[in-house]
Design goal:
- 36% of the residues lie in helices and 15% in strands.
- By secondary structure, it is α/β, with parallel strands linked by helices.
- It has a seven-stranded parallel β-sheet with strand order 3-2-4-1-5-6-7, with helices on both faces.
- The radius of gyration is 19 Å and the shape is globular.
- The model is unreliable at 13-42 (pLDDT under 50).
């Protein structure tokens, strides 16, 4: 069970069988302590303390694996970005256009996460980059163990940029370090202006924010200035890109930034 969000199983213990994340019916008990199954003290501060302790231990295991991932990538000169957004913000569409633009210029690799299906991986294949899909089943985010298990399959000696498309969710993925260099938050103008202040953890942690689907901005009751102000309130130093993957507007600046990172 993901103890930080209650979403489902997690695979943080390196001794556990991670393959269950890639096949149906693989939700076996991992031996992690489950607060909801604890037959000890169930009330008051003692109960809450146990839950907090489990959360800390899960994140500590995750962070240790993430540190190993980060070191492994750094040894190979790979820059890793963790792309996080709500479902439908346009992560996969942006990755499609990004891979098209970077083909022949920057060697990329892609890990994409969803609870079910390999739809996103199929969309991204054939664009010049190895792609690996992770199906998380009942977990609402990727964790460092899941990423570790596919790194050697997707990253080769020539890779310079690893793009990790996290499960669509503004909350849970923000809590888990995957070993990335930094997080990139995507926010579509169709989602409204106030998401950065409603879900501040992600936007505080993200070094880069991409405002997507800007081709729709003129057709929506959306205040661009207010959205930017909310972003600056929670992350004053954020690097901001505004683009439309559909029309290509704003993509040049985004692609140039990625080339600079990879160099």
């Amino acid at each position: 069970m993901c103890k930080t969000c209650g979403c489902g199983k997690t695979t943080l213990d390196p001794q556990h069988d991670h393959d269950h994340h890639h096949r149906p019916g693989g939700h076996q008990d991992h031996g992690h302590p489950h607060p909801e199954h604890d037959h000890g003290e169930r009330t008051g501060g003692s109960r809450r303390a146990k839950v907090v302790d489990v959360q800390r231990r899960v994140l500590a295991r995750n962070d240790a694996i993430a540190a190993d991932n980060r070191a492994w990538l750094a040894e190979r000169g790979v820059v890793a970005l963790n792309l996080i957004s709500a479902p439908g913000a346009g992560k996969t569409r942006l990755l499609e256009r990004t891979l098209d633009r970077l083909r022949g210029a920057v060697r990329c690799a892609v890990i994409t996460g969803d609870q079910q299906t390999d739809n996103d991986a199929r969309r991204l294949r054939g664009k010049g980059a190895p792609v690996r899909q992770i199906e998380t089943h009942d977990a609402c985010h990727l964790d460092a163990g899941m990423v570790r298990d596919v790194l050697r399959d997707v990253v080769d000696d020539g890779t310079r940029l690893l793009l990790i498309e996290n499960v669509g969710n503004l909350v849970c993925p923000a809590a888990f370090d995957l070993g990335e260099n930094f997080k990139v938050a995507l926010l579509s103008c169709a989602e409204g202006e106030d998401k950065p202040v409603k879900y501040p953890t992600l936007f505080m942690d993200a070094r880069v924010v991409v405002l997507t689907k800007m081709d729709l901005a003129d057709h929506l009751d959306w205040d661009a200035g207010l959205c930017r102000a909310f972003l600056r309130r929670v992350q004053p130093d954020v690097r901001l890109f505004e683009l439309s993957a559909k029309t290509g507007a704003g993509l040049d600046a985004w692609v140039a930034y990625l080339k600079e990172l990879a160099s």
